[in-house]
Task: structure prediction
Amino acid sequence: MSTRDVQPPSGTGALISARGLKKSYGRNEALRGASLDLHEGEILAVSGASGSGKSTLLHCLAGIVRPDEGAVSYGGEQLGGLSEARLGELRRRDFGVVFQFGQLIPELSALDNVALPLLLGGTRRSEANQRAGEWLERFGVRGQAELRPGGMSGGQSQRVALARALVTEPRAVFADEPTGALDSLAGEQVMTALVHTARESGTAVLLITHDAQIAAYADREVGLRDGVVHSGSAGPVGRKAARREG
Ligand code: ADP
Ligand code: MG
Result:
């Protein structure tokens, strides 16, 4: 399939909807009925304490992990009903993913890392390299094109990882604490680059963070507590207030 055949509902409909997600690892219940909508072009921050299920939620939404119960739909199509092959194609073509660190291939240059998703999707090498170079430029790391990840700073390699996530011009980017391993200046540069680029291209972003400064870049924020989504922040203030009440 060369064209996007999954059309998200137009207007205000959600691009991705999760309903009642449950996921356990052994006796450990990572998600206990989490529901969430990610709208087209929206930057949504998900905050929550370590172990609250943030990464598991992201993996379910991005079609990386299948929930035990509940459903995720993308453009009206249930991810649970798709074959592994079709899911893989969606992940490659419609979704981009960025993790905290270390997701670049160490043996490949920055340019080759960014060109890879295009090559996997069948783009010719010359065109893939050209587009990869343009995306490195957008994220201010064109000068690092020939470097391998080991030769770059943490902030530079995260910007390369963002370029790689966005080079296929996905509908949604899933970012799991993308600045979690960076100092605040580098983190701010990465976030500014991500938010600016996502807004420009209309890409929806699900941004996981436990940093209130970072969450402030989002259009909307929800909190995750014990595997359940709560609207509004679950940041330090929200959690403190909840503890006092309860
Ligand atoms: P967060 O990203 O908010 O820190 P996670 O989604 O990574 O939370 O984890 C939620 C819970 O599920 C934690 O208790 C964690 O230990 C557990 N968990 C997550 N992934 C796995 C896994 N692959 N195997 C076993 N337990 C896991
Ligand atoms: Mg996590």
